[in-house]
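Weekend entry, working from home. Most of the wet-lab plans are on hold until the incubator is repaired, so I used the time to fold the two sequences that have been sitting in the queue since the last round of cloning. Logging both here for the record. First:
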Amino acid sequence: MARKGLHSGMAERRFGRIVFITSDTFWDPPVRPKNEAEAGPLPYIASKGALIGAMRKLARTLGPDGISVTAVAPGLTETAGTTQKAAEFADVVHRQALKRRLTPDDTAAAVAFLVSDGAAALTGQELVVDGGLVLR
């Protein structure tokens, strides 16, 4: 019998994919805010950690219904809104194993994999897509 809730259509089909977008900052948080007047990224990092916990719990809860639950943790990604962060990009790329800026296509490719047949046996896992900044 299918469970009721937002995932009920997936449960009825005995198939579904849920992918959360988290962040590599959960695994490699900055040491301190850019200036002492800022609160820093603590609320952001905490929210991404909460998503990782929810993803793991949902993976176990929804797995019997054929629903996989995974996450993608992108690193600093170049977008129209990040043009003012040239110095931050330079620092991050310097620390990455792959010396290039990340693009939205990098995250999209990871999500596409997680919803593909190739990821049929994956659930409760987080792919860190950050050019090798965080090695786990």
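Second, folded right after the first finished:
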Amino acid sequence: MPDDPKSFFLGAEIAEYVVDHGTPPDDVQRWLIEETRSRVSDLAMMQISPEQGAFMQLLVRAIGARRAVEVGTFTGYSALSIARGLVDGGRLLCCDVSEEWTSLGREAWKRAGVDDRIDLVIAPAIETLRALPTDEPIDFVFIDADKPSYADYFEELLPRVRADGLLLIDNTLWGGAVIDESAQDENTLAIRAFNDLVARDDRVESAILPLGDGVTVLRKR
């Protein structure tokens, strides 16, 4: 496991306890964690935390999700978690722009036996989302990509999500920078604007969870 907890407000010991007392990573997930650290060490913190993966898989399974969409796949840990939670015959569409990073994900999905339920599209995500049909309801969405585009991804996906479907948005606490007024960089400003947007949106009900780097859970009304 990584030495530094991705739930930035947790110390190492309590973070280890959280992972150990949930559904822990299996051999494939541990392999993917280690390979990500080895191959893309400078960006490994982009991978979701083990406890977040367990939470996502539980949610996907709990709502009986058949059709899911992920925006931002990186090395595939989140996609693996979502795919494992889908009902039999379920499909996950992954949107990313990196062949290099997602190639590691493809290997993990194959090892886990879920590669047959994942469709990966390498292209700008907004183009992929705009091409999605409007008459095939989506049950579950995970957004973890470029922060300035969060609002655009949300607006494209929400009309396609079924009533009572869920959307999870990652990094919405942004290491605590969301409340640091001295932080005025593009990503922080985008996260703040997105958080304000969904908090005012009466099409959804929402909660920000202090999990990983902050996860917003939205239920479409």
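Plan for Monday: verify the second prediction. The longest strand covers residues 161-170.
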